[in-house]
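Narrative of accomplishments. A recurring question from our advisory board has been how the design workflow behaves on a single, concrete structure rather than in aggregate. To address it, we present the structure tokens for one chain from the evaluation set, followed by the sequence designed for it. No filtering or post-editing was applied between the two.
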């Protein structure tokens, strides 16, 4: 018998597109009435769901025309990735990053667990405060080099980043893209309830790190334990002697640090996004070229090669976005939301809170955008929470856990698929690594929600 081979991630995503298309023929078309809230966003009106008597089924060629449309919708992150790929390639060609890694390894090579913990905690802090996620993508290749030098694999490297931002979103204190949006839609005072969420920070960080380090230390002891040991695309370049730090490399690193600071300030104060961030990295590539006294022709060639290496990743993002678009264009997205929300009205408060977490987790597959999910689901969940005796604050917490935790595993999350694509990690291998952690986090999240209900959070 032939051994079953898991299809390529692109094949899996297209299969999910086909499944979504089939749902548009099986499920009834339906929609909620929509209204514009105070900040100009459209939200659903609870209790207004109705089945559409007239509908037009999507033609079969929609499976193919939706791909370029989805890539157009996701153009921001796609072009951001291409600019990052080129800029990082120019930066790496100077040897400045490798010199920095050499110094870090010299200091922490005997304490790999501490270095991994610090990395994960840093990503978690960035996400829980100002909602960073896509902004971490430029650090992926650097993180891989660092972890591999410590005898870990690419899964360990990506794990520290994805687990960090996933748990950061799930227990976020102030995240403006999820917590504040959901609280606004649910008419809960902005930033309120942060004390309880802060109490969850360390326990969930410990759960995530325990899972990551348990895997990483086994890989360190035996490289064959790695989930990607037989995947050539997931193997980073062999670690070599690191160049010595000199004045020119230090200047390049300082320019990079300045760019990151400008980026963080821009995100926090001016709400910059892909356009501005892509421009910053392109400027950094130019500044790096000047400092290193490299010819612009040579830098342009390096930039082009670096950008081309992320073409496959760009395709994954477009296919992932296509799934949501098919469900939306097929007019069954609101049908899914309504069908999942109705059962909550028939159970007690504690079970309702857990049910909200489960429902938000399921819906994250269909609506991977955190703010988008808030605008679609919170107008429904907030009134339901009033009926079943759960505070709206608990409903918001269930939403953000469902969104944050599941973003580490749903293949419709463009950021996750982009990171995996950059590293050559097949989705099936990533799922094998992350699924047990998702189960642990959902159990811990359910316990947290029950406690929140009992203490009147």
């Amino acid at each position: 018998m032939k051994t079953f081979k898991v299809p390529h991630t692109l094949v899996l995503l297209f299969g999910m597109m086909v499944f979504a298309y089939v749902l548009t023929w099986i499920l009834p078309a339906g929609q909620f009435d929509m209204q514009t809230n105070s900040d100009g966003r459209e939200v659903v009106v609870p209790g207004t769901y109705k089945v559409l008597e007239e509908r037009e089924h999507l033609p079969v060629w929609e499976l193919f025309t939706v791909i370029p449309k989805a890539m157009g919708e996701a153009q921001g992150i796609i072009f951001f990735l291409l600019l990052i790929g080129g800029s990082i390639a120019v930066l790496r060609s100077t040897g400045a990053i490798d010199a920095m890694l050499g110094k870090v390894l010299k200091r922490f090579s005997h304490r790999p667990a501490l270095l991994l913990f610090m990395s994960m905690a840093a990503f978690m802090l960035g996400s829980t405060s100002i909602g960073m996620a896509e902004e971490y993508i430029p650090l992926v290749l650097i993180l891989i080099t660092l972890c591999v030098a410590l005898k870990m694999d690419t899964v360990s490297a990506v794990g520290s980043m994805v687990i960090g931002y996933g748990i950061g979103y799930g227990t976020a204190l102030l995240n403006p893209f999820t917590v504040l949006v959901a609280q606004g839609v649910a008419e809960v005072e902005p930033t309120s309830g942060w004390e309880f969420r802060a109490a969850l920070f360390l326990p969930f960080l410990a759960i995530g790190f325990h899972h990551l380090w348990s895997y990483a230390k086994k890989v360190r002891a035996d490289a064959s334990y790695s989930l990607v040991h037989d995947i050539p695309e997931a193997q980073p370049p062999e670690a070599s002697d690191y160049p010595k730090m000199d004045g020119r490399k230090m200047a390049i690193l300082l320019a990079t640090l300045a760019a990151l600071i400008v980026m963080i300030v821009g995100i926090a104060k001016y709400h910059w996004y892909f356009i501005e961030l892509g421009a910053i990295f392109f400027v950094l590539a130019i500044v790096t070229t000047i400092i290193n006294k490299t010819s612009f022709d040579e830098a342009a060639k390096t930039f082009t090669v670096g950008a081309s290496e992320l073409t496959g990743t760009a395709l994954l993002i477009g296919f992932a976005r296509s799934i949501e678009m098919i469900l939306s264009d097929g007019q069954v997205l609101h049908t899914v939301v309504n069908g999942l929300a109705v059962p909550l009205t028939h159970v007690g408060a504690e079970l309702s809170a857990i049910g909200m977490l489960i429902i938000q987790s399921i819906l994250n597959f269909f609506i991977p955008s955190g703010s988008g999910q808030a605008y679609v689901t919170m107008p429904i969940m907030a009134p339901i929470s009033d009926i079943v005796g759960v505070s709206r604050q608990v409903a918001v917490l269930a939403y953000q856990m469902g969104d944050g935790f599941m973003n580490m595993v749903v293949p419709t999350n463009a950021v996750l698929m982009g990171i995996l694509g950059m590293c050559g990690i097949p989705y099936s291998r990533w799922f094998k690594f992350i699924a047990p952690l998702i189960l642990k986090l959902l159990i811990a999240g359910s316990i947290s929600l029950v406690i929140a209900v009992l203490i009147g959070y």
